[in-house]
Amino acid sequence: MDEHIKVMPKPSNREKILTEGLRVVHERGFAHASVRDIVQAAGVPQGSFTNHFVSKEAFGLEILDLYYSGTYGSRLAILRNEALAPLDRLRAYVEASRDRLNNGGMRAGCLLGNFTADSSEHSEPIRERLVELYGQTQQAIAECLAAAVASGALPAETDCMELAGVIQTSMQGAILMAKAQLSTAPVDRFLRVLFEKILR
Amino acid sequence: MDEHIKVMPKPSNREKILTEGLRVVHERGFAHASVRDIVQAAGVPQGSFTNHFVSKEAFGLEILDLYYSGTYGSRLAILRNEALAPLDRLRAYVEASRDRLNNGGMRAGCLLGNFTADSSEHSEPIRERLVELYGQTQQAIAECLAAAVASGALPAETDCMELAGVIQTSMQGAILMAKAQLSTAPVDRFLRVLFEKILR
Q1: Closest residue of A to B174, CA-based?
Q2: A29 interaction partners in chain B (CB closer than 8 Å)
Q3: If interface means Cβ-Cβ distance under 8 Å, which residues of chain B face chain A?
Q4: N or C, fewer C-beta in 10 Å, chain A?
């Protein structure tokens, strides 16, 4: 084998199921998306799903991780972009979350929020994974707020973890409302109140 | 017939399906609760469902209204309780929403939020009804805020509808997180930030 020839490997059935499955679940919800829907979207035989995943729950846990390490994670990285002042990063993070809603006509919402509403009481492993991922998000926002405190943009007595938790859940709620109203207005409203009242 | 004898009518199959169906859907989610689950919980024959509801969607619209006119509506009434100062009403409303989460071990969350996450992209009539009910909630909060402005507890330039929208969506997000974490801490955090920062 010539080591200089790099061949892009064809995606495996497992990868196709994860990539297309994530898209289908994000659009339709985990409860609504059947295994048949997922394998059809991936263009693989139905048996392929059970070859690669011991259960729909195991598949659900993997797409949560894929989402978190993908687009969701790339938005979180904005919070650590030291080219911007800390509160500018926070604004850019909320704006990126809002702008992403326009993909798919705002109907998809946040995958984590959707899983929480429709699956957290049906699967303890999924609920626990959601809590972990939410915790990591809260931590990333809190570190950005701590940088704002260090730079003097927020008062020294700011409880960064508490405030980060409220910012995180308020964004989730605004994104849920955007999905109902098919409008980003709820996120814009939150952004104004965040900068005019909460962080002033 | 003797008009002095008042007989409490037995609940009809339709009423049983609505009451027990609301409970089952609130616990399991609309997508997860099958018609079979609902008629089993109601203790009525399966055919009874199709006798009374043209579709699961029609049933979903009715339980949304039942929820809104029931426990949800009684919480909204707190916002109009003139025995309390306006901002005390708002605090009591958030606290009542939090305390209600303890029923069912916090797993149920808010029926409107759950419907939004799991069903609003599958049914346009359900999405539209959710938007109406959310609009009525926002209006009730805004009127309470307007009363606070009138009493001098909030500045005259307060944009009551905007602020009401943010309070509403932030509560939804905090309730969603309570459902994930099985803890009312997210709602308590929001309550502190609301009174210490947003309304100060």
Answers
A1: A169
A2: 31, 117-119, 121-122
A3: 27-29, 31-32, 107-109, 113-114, 116-122, 127, 130-131, 134, 162-163, 165-166, 168-174, 176-177, 179-182, 186, 189-190, 192-193, 197-198
A4: N
One DSSP character per residue, chain B reads --TT----PPPPHHHHHHHHHHHHHHHH-TTT--HHHHHHHHT--HHHHHHH-SSHHHHHHHHHHHHHHTHHHHHHHHTT-TTS-HHHHHHHHHHHHHHHHTGGGG-S--HHHHHHHHHTTT-HHHHHHHHHHHHHHHHHHHHHHHHHHHTTSS-TT--HHHHHHHHHHHHHHHHHHHHHHTSSHHHHHHHHHIIIII--
Reported ipTM? 0.90
A150: Cβ–Cβ under 8 A, 6 or more apart, which residues?
none
